[in-house]
């Protein structure tokens, strides 16, 4: 059974979509609805469903701003809107489907099929990642497992210089000048890394403390072994100096 959440600022739109989804009650269950994006974000970040039906045009934020505020978006996202000009943005956000209002039952049936595929793929990947991460951890505590581009990479902690955030993406920079791009926010990547080696020095950066070459106190930045300059956030400076 697919557990779904609907976010739309119009109660009538929520009622209409809920009624349409009721035709597929053996396959999908609407567990929660929200007219407030802010309340929805709090809920989704603590209780992720299998699928989110999301309106684009809302008063306090649009649907894409909403997606940027989600911490760990592993669930399927279906855009529901009366406007068709958001298709390119939706593709960039890697949404599962894009439904135009009023929603057609046949289109909704196709969407549910796509949600099922997404859920199955995510479950299989999560199980495999968990098993391999556990196995890898037993073999080597100084190595992390990274899921990216349909592959699981085993990366030595000592090979990581720093991690840089780019919205919903993060890039890991390695000693050999290679980069690994992840569809994870920096907060998620930070949770993967051993705390005694790494420190979130700035909202946009995590650094490997053992790879810092210099700390320029007056200007407030560090120079990594690759000569990359990374700023130290003012509010993190004291904790950073304690770690050094």
Automatic annotation (TrEMBL):
<dbReference type="InterPro" id="IPR007492">
    <property type="entry name" value="LytTR_DNA-bd_dom"/>
</dbReference>
<feature type="modified residue" description="4-aspartylphosphate">
    <location>
        <position position="55"/>
    </location>
</feature>
<dbReference type="GO" id="GO:0000156">
    <property type="term" value="F:phosphorelay response regulator activity"/>
</dbReference>
<feature type="domain" description="Response regulatory">
    <location>
        <begin position="3"/>
        <end position="116"/>
    </location>
</feature>
<dbReference type="GO" id="GO:0003677">
    <property type="term" value="F:DNA binding"/>
</dbReference>
<feature type="domain" description="HTH LytTR-type">
    <location>
        <begin position="144"/>
        <end position="244"/>
    </location>
</feature>
<dbReference type="Pfam" id="PF04397">
    <property type="entry name" value="LytTR"/>
</dbReference>
<dbReference type="Pfam" id="PF00072">
    <property type="entry name" value="Response_reg"/>
</dbReference>
<dbReference type="InterPro" id="IPR011006">
    <property type="entry name" value="CheY-like_superfamily"/>
</dbReference>
<dbReference type="InterPro" id="IPR001789">
    <property type="entry name" value="Sig_transdc_resp-reg_receiver"/>
</dbReference>
<protein>
    <submittedName>
        <fullName>Two-component system response regulator, LytTR f amily</fullName>
    </submittedName>
</protein>
<keyword id="KW-0597">Phosphoprotein</keyword>
<dbReference type="InterPro" id="IPR046947">
    <property type="entry name" value="LytR-like"/>
</dbReference>
């Amino acid at each position: 059974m697919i557990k779904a959440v609907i976010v739309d600022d119009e109660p009538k739109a929520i009622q209409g979509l809920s009624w349409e989804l009721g035709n597929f009650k053996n396959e999908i269950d609407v567990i929660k609805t929200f007219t407030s994006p802010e309340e929805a974000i709090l809920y989704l970040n603590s209780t992720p469903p299998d699928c989110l039906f999301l309106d684009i045009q809302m008063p306090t934020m649009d649907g894409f701003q909403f997606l940027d505020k989600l911490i760990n978006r592993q669930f399927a996202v279906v855009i529901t809107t009366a406007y068709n000009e958001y298709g390119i943005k939706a593709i960039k956000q890697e949404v599962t489907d894009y439904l135009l209002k009023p929603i057609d039952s046949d289109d909704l049936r196709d969407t549910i099929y796509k949600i099922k595929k997404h859920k199955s793929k995510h479950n299989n990947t999560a199980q495999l990642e968990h098993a391999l991460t556990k196995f890898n951890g037993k073999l080597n505590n100084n190595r992390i497992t990274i899921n990216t581009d349909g592959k699981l990479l085993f990366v030595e902690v000592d090979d990581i210089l720093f991690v840089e955030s780019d919205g919903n993406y993060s890039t890991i920079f390695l000693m050999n000048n290679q980069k690994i791009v992840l569809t994870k926010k920096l907060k998620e990547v930070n949770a993967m890394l051993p705390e005694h080696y790494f420190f979130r020095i700035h909202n946009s950066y995590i650094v490997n403390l053992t790879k810092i070459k210099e700390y320029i106190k007056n200007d407030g930045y560090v120079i990594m072994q690759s000569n990359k300059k990374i700023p130290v956030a003012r509010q993190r400076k004291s904790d950073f100096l304690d770690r050094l």
